[in-house]
Amino acid sequence: MSRFASALAVAVVLAACGSRPVVVDRTATPGIIVVPTELPNGRVEIAIRPSYVLGAGTQVSVTIVATQGTITGPTEARVMASGINEGGAPAEVLVRRLDAKAETVKAGGRATAILTWNGEDEFGVRVPADAYVLLVEFEADEGTGTHTVRAAATLQMND
Fold first, then answer.
1. Coil, strand, or helix at residue 125?
2. Of 32, 69, 79, 154, which is most buried, counting CB atoms within 10 Å of its CB?
3. CA-to-CA distance for 71 and 121, rounded, in angstroms?
4. Could you give the CA distance from residue 25 to residue 48 in angstroms, rounded to a whole number?
5. Which residue from 73, 55, 79 is spatially nearest to 129, judged by alpha carbons?
6. pLDDT tens per residue, range 78-113
7. What is the Cα–Cα distance from 55 to 118, expressed in whole angstroms?
8. pLDDT of residue 21
9. Nearest 10 degrees: CA dihedral of 87, 89, 95, 100?
10. Higher-confidence residue: 23 or 110?
11. Model's pTM, two decimal places?
12. Which residues have C-beta within 8 Å of that of residue 49, sequence separation ≥ 6?
């Protein structure tokens, strides 16, 4: 077997064993991207825009769909900045905690929450233009106990 065929076979095996890719759905609403996260008992859909203008107020809708048991959330929402620390290791830093009003969705149900961010950090200082991670937490109970699950999306903030 040639080296190319061997390399191709290894690549196919590795691709088949890899994790399931995240599929980003484009919606019928122009300029909105839905980032889905599959949960053990449903899914969460974070609807974002390709970019936001700092200081204009950022609104993100988070839809919860329960297929069994219950999903409660968002229980917590945070904006994080990622980068590399002085030691060269990946690091995340809290930028701002967002107000989140949790709702409990039962099997077969659906609810949407709106998260807002004014582009400021925890101290009220406007953040620089950059990409930030919106991290949203939920409590999922599929009948065997409650556990915390997370969904995330990138918010591109521009001047």
1. coil
2. 79
3. 29
4. 11
5. 55
6. 999 998 888 999 999 999 999 999 999 999 999 999
7. 6
8. 42
9. -150
10. 110
11. 0.79
12. 31, 32, 33
Residue 88 near residue 53, CB atoms below 8 Å: no
The residue among 61, 27, 63, 60 whose CA lies nearest residue 43 is 63
Strands 90-98 and 58-66: unpaired
Both tokens of residue 16?
């088949």
Three-point CA angle 94, 100, 102, nearest 5°: 135
DSSP structural state of residue 108: T
Q: Which position has the token pair 């399931």?
A: 20
Q: Taking all residues of the chain, what is their mean pLDDT, rounded to a whole number?
A: 86
In the three-class reduction of DSSP (H, G, I as helix; E, B as strand; rest coil), residue 87 is classed as coil
Kindly report the number of other CB atoms within 10 A of residue 39's CB atom: 22
Q: What is the pLDDT of residue 58?
A: 95
Cα dihedral 37, 81, 127, 47, rounded to 10, equals: -10
Structure tokens at 2: 């040639």
C-alpha–C-alpha distance, residues 126 and 149, integer Å: 29
Mean pLDDT of 67-76: 98
Determine how many CB atoms are found less than 10 A away from the CB of residue 88.
7
Distance between CA atoms of 76 and 135, rounded to whole angstroms?
A: 8
